[in-house]
Amino acid sequence: MAWTTPRTWVTGEVVTAAMMNEQVRDNEDYLKAHVDAATAVHGLGTGVYPTGCKQEQLRFEYKEADVTLSSGTEVQGVTLTWNNAFTTIRGVQVATYYTTADYNMGRNYAYVSARSVTGATVQMAASGGKSGTFTVQALAYGV
Amino acid sequence: MIVHRVALHMEETPARIEISDGRLDVTAGAWPDLGGAVARLPHVSLELETSDRYLYADRQGGVVLSDGFIGYGEDGAGRPLPMLDLLAWRGDDEWHVKELCNG
Fold it and tell me: Chain B closest CA to A93's CA: distance in Å?
């Protein structure tokens, strides 16, 4: 159904069925089809929305998990799984969340040691930081 | 056993992993790979060693048990690694397994 530029109506104009069908019915059908297409992106589960640009629509997944270190030189990893598998994964960004201000946190470094279409493994490096329980946050993006 | 469900749409029946009483059972089926490719995992049934900590699918069509961590998936530049995916891993006292849900 093609889009028709909306008509500018003039005083005393006789409106025909053909004009109403073109201006109201056909243009509303056209708009409805576009709304439906935007909400029916293939492969996305409930609560998952696409963002991105014309070249590639990226999908995002967020996961977090607590990691407890008994000392600043202990290596601990955590594996996170995505709610919906990616077809191709483009990247995983991680951060370490800790509720108390402490200069030693500067050495509590988390990094991604592996990633796949179903999940990723994040390691806390044994870099001499604080002991305690930290929340590792991972934001994955892909298609 | 702690199950981590991952949803995906796949025509083939997904492989299924179960670990119970020190025993590993893999029901043959499909597993997603990079770029929409699909790998096939074989049927496996064996007793786990106490040192086993990680279960991988490899790109030779098999599964691999390891006591140490091995990188999996892709290398960050989109190049596939020998281990296709991590299927299961042992936490402090329990095994964690991935479960694919077709949908």
Answer: 12
Q: Do B33 and A119 touch (CB under 8 A)?
A: no
Look at residue A82 in the predicted model and tell me its pLDDT: 96
A124: number of Cβ within 10 Å? 23
User: Are A85 and B85 in contact (CB < 8 Å)?
Assistant: no
pLDDT in the model for residue A47: 60
Q: Domain spanning A51-142 has what CATH number?
A: 2.60.40.2080
pTM for the model stands at: 0.74
Under-50 pLDDT residues of chain A: none
d(CA A58, CA A141): 6
CATH code of B97's domain: 2.60.40
* Cα(A11)–Cα(A9) distance, integer angstroms: 7
Cα angle B101, B102, B103 (rounded to 5 degrees) comes to 110
CA distance A126 to A110: 10
Residue B74 DSSP class: B
Helices (H), chain A: 17-20, 27-39
